[in-house]
Specification:
The protein has about 260 residues and is mainly β. It folds into 2 domains: about 200 residues, Jelly Rolls (Sandwich); about 35 residues, no CATH class. It is built from 3 helices and 15 strands. Strands 2, 4, 7, 10, 13 and 14 form a 6-stranded antiparallel sheet that branches. A 5-stranded mixed sheet has the order 3-5-12-8-9, with no helix packed on it. Strand 8 and strand 9 form a beta hairpin. The radius of gyration is 23 Å and the shape is globular. The relative contact order is 0.25. The N terminus and C terminus are likely disordered.
């Protein structure tokens, strides 16, 4: 049983929705820089257009944006488009599970032979150490469409990984393939649409892309001293305005607590 006066992490106060869903879904905003700059996975042959961004679990309504790549190389290459970095997590075990990602993509010619490609890893708080890789660089098994931006569903089973306090998730997403003329291809990112992409390989509607874990991941957060907020200023006197009176709003202002 918790002791009175103990500071409780705000992240411990999980919503009923989180508990029942037992999922953590991340979105891919088109704006908002990541807090750190982890090294790109060595499996990417081309990182010339990469921008580092912050991934979020609550949409920030960033613009739906098409990110395009173009070259004239007939080679087997994986091209990194964007790297998203999460807020710090608390120490926990990311269980072995199936990760699912949905994102729309297109190639300029069917002979480009391009596939949505992804990496999922965990890095230290400063981004300097790779704690472990959940998804090594992997191409989808369905080639992207050459006519219109079309949904692609990437699903992959992962092993468990114990992470340390302050570690961050990193998502690297691009395209890859054995091109006969070029690797010209595009991805659609952003989270402005209220509806998430469904789990299929056919949707062309401009819904928000996402990546989902099958567990509730817990992030670092500010702590709230519950006892300090609720206790009276002193224990001599009664009534509003007297020495026993305690204004809870004053405690909130004093604590600058955030949930």
């Amino acid at each position: 049983m918790a002791q009175i006066g103990r500071s409780f992490p705000a992240h411990a106060l999980l919503s009923a929705r989180q508990i029942l869903a037992a999922r953590t879904r991340f979105y891919f905003p088109s704006t908002g820089a990541g807090a750190v700059s982890p090294a790109f996975d060595a499996g990417w042959e081309d990182v010339s257009i990469v921008t580092r961004l912050k991934t979020v679990t609550t949409k920030i309504a960033s613009a739906m944006t098409t990110v395009a790549f173009s070259d004239l190389l007939a080679t087997d290459e994986d091209i990194l488009f964007r790297q998203w970095v999460s807020d710090p997590l608390v120490a926990q075990t990311i269980i072995g599970q199936t990760l699912t990602m949905q994102m729309r993509a297109i190639e300029t010619l069917a002979t480009n032979n391009m596939f949505v490609t992804w990496v999922v890893k965990v890095v230290s708080n400063d981004g300097g150490t790779v704690r472990g890789t959940l998804v090594a660089i992997t191409r989808d098994n369905v080639e992207v469409d050459a006519a219109t931006l079309t949904n692609r569903s990437l699903v992959l089973a992962t092993n468990a990984l114990a992470i340390l306090d302050g570690d961050r998730l990193v998502f690297e997403i691009g395209t890859g393939g054995v091109a006969t003329v070029s690797h010209d291809s595009s991805l659609r990112i952003g989270d402005a649409d209220a509806t998430d992409l469904p789990v299929n390989d056919t949707t062309t509607t401009d819904n928000s892309p996402w990546l989902e874990f099958q567990q509730v991941l817990v992030f670092q957060a500010a702590t709230v001293d519950i006892f300090r907020i609720l206790r009276p200023s002193s224990f001599s006197g009664l009534g509003s305005g007297g020495p026993f009176y305690h204004d809870p709003l004053a405690s909130f202002r004093e604590q600058r607590a955030t949930l």
